[in-house]
Amino acid sequence: MAEIVDIAKKGTSKTHIMFKANLSFNQLNQYLELLIQTGLLEKTKNERKEIYIATQKGLEFMEKQCQIISFLNEDLPNKTLKNNVKTFFQQNT
Length: 93
Description:
This protein is α+β, with helices and mostly antiparallel strands. The protein has helices at residues 2-7, 14-21, 25-37, 56-74, 79-91, and strands at 41-46, 49-54.
């Protein structure tokens, strides 16, 4: 979810999000619906095209996720484990 919000920071199309986040059309629609319902994204129209853009709440969500990753990385003994935590969170957002 944080990856989608990140992709939509400056506003982008559904297609761009789908390809950049490597999601299927069905997955994308489910995530977009959830992100809009929770107020992390908003949908607008720009020249007959739907644009998705991160809200302030969405940007705060991304910031908090980065803080959590940093918090978990503080206690990890080596770089390999730190990269695994970062990768895990990136794959599960």
